[in-house]
Amino acid sequence: MLGKLLLFLLVCLSPGTIALAMPGQPPAAGKTLAEQELREIFIEVFKAHLPGRVADVAVNDFSCRPRTLAIPEGSLDYRIVGSVESDTPGKKNLIVEILVNSEKKGEVSMSGDLRFQGTVVLLSRNMFRRSILTASDIKTEFRDISMLGEDLVTNPDFAVGKKLKKTLRQGAILSAGLLENPQIIKRGDRVTIMAKSGGLQVTAPGEAKNGGALGDMVKVKNMMSRRVVQARVIGQGLVEVER
Fold it and tell me: In three state form, how does the secondary structure of 16-71 look?
C-alpha cells in the first residue's frame, strides 16, 4: 500500500503533469478581477453616458455579485447587458458580461449610488434684482450637483451680461431661470431698421415703440415711411425686419 502511494506521488510531481486548481482558486495562468476593478468598470460605463452638464461622477455604496471574478490571461473587455439609465443620479443597477479575447468568461451584477459632479457658477457678493452681472460678480466651484436642476449654469460666460430676475445672496448658485437678457433697446430709442431680400440689404432710420432684449420682437416706426413694423433686436440700436 505504501509503495503504491509513493508511486502515485512520483507521477503527480513528474515534469509535464497538469496541476489542477483547488475549488475557489483562480487558474494558475490567469488573474482575479477584484472588487475595485469591477467598481472602475461600473464608473466607466456611466461616465460614457453622462448628461452634458455633468463633468464627472462619484459612486457610493458600491456592491457587486460576485465580489471577485477569476479569469484567464488575455485581452479584457466587457459587454453591457440591457440599457444604461444615466440621465439622473441615484441608485443604479448594472449587469456586465466579462470578456477575455472576445469570449464571455463571467457575468457580474453591480449596484451603486451614482452622484453627479460638475462646475457651478455662484455669486461672489449680494446682488439686487435687475443687476447686470459682470465677471467680478461671479465665481465657479466644482462640487456635487446631484440635487441641482437641468438648467444649472456651468459656464461663467453664459452669466456675464445677464440681468438678475430676483435679489440673491452671496453664494447663490445660478440657474438659467434666474437670469434674463437685459434690454438693449428702450422705448423711444433711435434705431436702424434693416431688411434683407436675397442678396439685397436696405436700411432705414426708425424709432422703437417698446423696449426689447437681444432676440426680442419689438415695434419700430420707420421714420421715412411713417409705418410701424415688427422687427427683431439683433444688436445695440439695430433691428431686422423678417420676411
Answer: CCCCCCCCCCCCCCEEEECHHHHHHHHHHHHHCCCCCCCCEEEEEEEEEECCCEEE
Q: What is the pTM of this model?
A: 0.69
Beta bridge partners of 221: 207, 228
Extract the C-alpha cell encoding 238. Answer: 439695430
Residues 139, 122: contact at Cβ < 8 Å?
yes
What is the identity of the amino acid at 14? S
Low-confidence ranges of the chain (pLDDT < 70): 1-29
C-alpha cell at 78: 466587457
Other beta carbons less than 10 A from residue 41's beta carbon: 19
Partners of residue 161 on adjacent β-strands: none
E strand or H helix at 240: strand 238-241
What is the β-pairing status of strands 76-81 and 69-72? unpaired
Look at residue 240 in the predicted model and tell me its pLDDT: 95
The Cα–Cα gap between 51 and 115 comes to 12
The residues, any chain, with a CB within 8 Å of residue 134's CB and separated by 6 or more, are 160
Q: In whole angstroms, what is the distance from residue 78 CA to residue 95 CA?
A: 10
Whole-angstrom Cα distance, residue 101 to residue 108?
17
Express each pLDDT in 46-90 by its tens digit. 999 888 889 999 999 999 999 999 999 999 999 999 999 888 999
For residue 124, give the 3-state DSSP assignment: coil
Domains in the chain with CATH codes: 32-116 (no CATH), 118-180 (3.90.1210.10), 183-241 (2.30.30.760)
d(CA 191, CA 120): 37
